[in-house]
Specification:
It is built from 3 helices and 11 strands. By secondary structure, it is mainly β. The protein is globular and about 50 Å long.
């Protein structure tokens, strides 16, 4: 697999992402992310304090082993490996507290858009990303990696999209440097279908690297 998802696989992954996290076994409350997220018509604007990285700033591939987003109280000590299930849908975390990295995309810190997904809620329990829509431009996302480095990203926009209008190319398309996408569900919960109406996507780009002392 290349540094971003191959175009041939985009449609399948899109279908998976926009449906899978929206069907908890027991319909739960919509949660704060669903009510506070920006719509795709009013995206958060990029800010000058989060500059684009130079192309040579990319790190060598190394699997992520956690994630911290202090602004919304997220701290996960390990990440699940998410792939594509046999039915063609994205594998999703099995509970509210877990988050997972999409292993068919880049690793966080490598060139291209890495993807980490988590629930907004699950079986009535607030999910790890239930406050994702509250992120603001400049908020930090820290991803420790298996090689001992920690990739630090700066958020530059947070959007909410109707599932039928999910912008595949914007989320998964090639980028000039290392970027990160955090994805969850949002909008209204439809009890008939068991799905949320929207997806919330936070966009961030690499702004620094912390290396553990040997």
């Amino acid at each position: 697999m290349t540094r971003t998802l191959r175009r041939a696989g985009l449609a399948a992954v899109l279908l998976a992402l926009v449906t899978a996290c929206a069907a908890p076994p027991v319909p739960g409350p919509v949660g704060r992310a669903a009510t506070s997220a920006a719509t795709s018509a009013t995206p958060a604007a990029p800010v000058a304090s989060v500059p684009p990285p130079a192309p040579d700033a990319a790190l060598a591939p190394s699997a992520p082993v956690g994630i911290a987003v202090p602004a919304i109280g997220v701290r996960v000590e390990s990440l699940l490996a998410l792939g594509i299930a046999g039915d063609g849908e994205l594998e999703v975390p099995p509970d509210a507290a877990s988050a997972g990295w999409f292993t068919l995309g880049p690793t966080p810190g490598a060139r291209g858009p890495a993807v980490i997904a988590g629930h907004v809620d699950y079986a009535g329990v607030p999910g790890v990303f239930h406050r994702l829509a509250e992120l603001a431009p400049g908020d930090e996302v820290s991803v420790p990696r298996a090689d001992g480095s920690r990739a630090v990203f700066g958020t530059y926009r947070v959007d909410r999209y109707a599932k039928s209008e999910f912008p595949t190319e914007r989320v998964y398309g090639d980028t000039g440097g290392p970027e990160l996408r955090l994805i969850t569900c949002g909008g209204a919960f439809d009890t008939r279908s068991g799905h949320y109406s929207d997806n919330v996507v936070a966009y961030a780009r690499l702004v620094g690297v912390v290396r553990e002392r040997g």
